[in-house]
Amino acid sequence: MNYLTHLEIKYKKILPIFMLICSMFILYVSFLVGFSVNTITSLILLVVSVLMLTRNLAVITPNEIQMMNLLGTTVKRYSFTPEQIVITNNDVYIDGKKILSTWWADINIKEVRKFLLQTQDEQ
């Protein structure tokens, strides 16, 4: 059987696409009017939106959840055992602490459940 070794969770696409469109519009207007602070902010918004489209929000492995920043480095690690993890209301909790919300994550919570059950079966 084909088992996954980790589960990569990306950002939802709607916000970065909206940010990308807004930054392109602001950049276009600032080029027509002339250089201003808006040119710099639109470039920053453009970079952030591209990073949100390409980078992971989190990576779930069989024994930990790694939260990532936009640069791709791991910011926080949450180790867990199968008994500690609870999935309710489309959120992932470890020992009662909310770790991951599907509000920002572009993943179905059923996929997370399936992956976690698969890793439990392996152990």
Reconstruct the topology from this structure.
Layout: E1 7-10, H1 14-33, H2 37-54, E2 56-61, E3 64-68, E4 74-79, E5 85-88, E6 91-94, E7 97-101, H3 109-122
Antiparallel strand pairs: 1-2, 2-3, 3-4, 5-6, 6-7
Helix pairs in contact: 1-2
Report on the structure:
This protein has one domain. About 40% of the residues lie in helices and about 30% in strands. The chain contains 3 helices and 7 strands. The radius of gyration is 18 Å and the shape is elongated. The mean pLDDT is about 90.
- Span from first to last CA? 15 Å
Percent of sequence in beta strands: 25-35%
| Radius of gyration of CA atoms, rounded to a whole number | 18 Å
Instruction: List how many beta strands DSSP finds.
Output: 7
Q: How many structural domains in the coordinates?
A: 1
Largest sheet: 4 strands, antiparallel
Low-confidence stretches: none
Average pLDDT metric? 89
User: Helical region count?
Assistant: 3
**Helix content range:** 40-55%
How is this structure best summarized?
By secondary structure, the protein is α+β, with helices and mostly antiparallel strands. The protein is built from three helices and seven strands.
Could you name the key traits of this structure?
alpha+beta; 42% helix; 123 residues; three-stranded antiparallel sheet; four-stranded antiparallel sheet
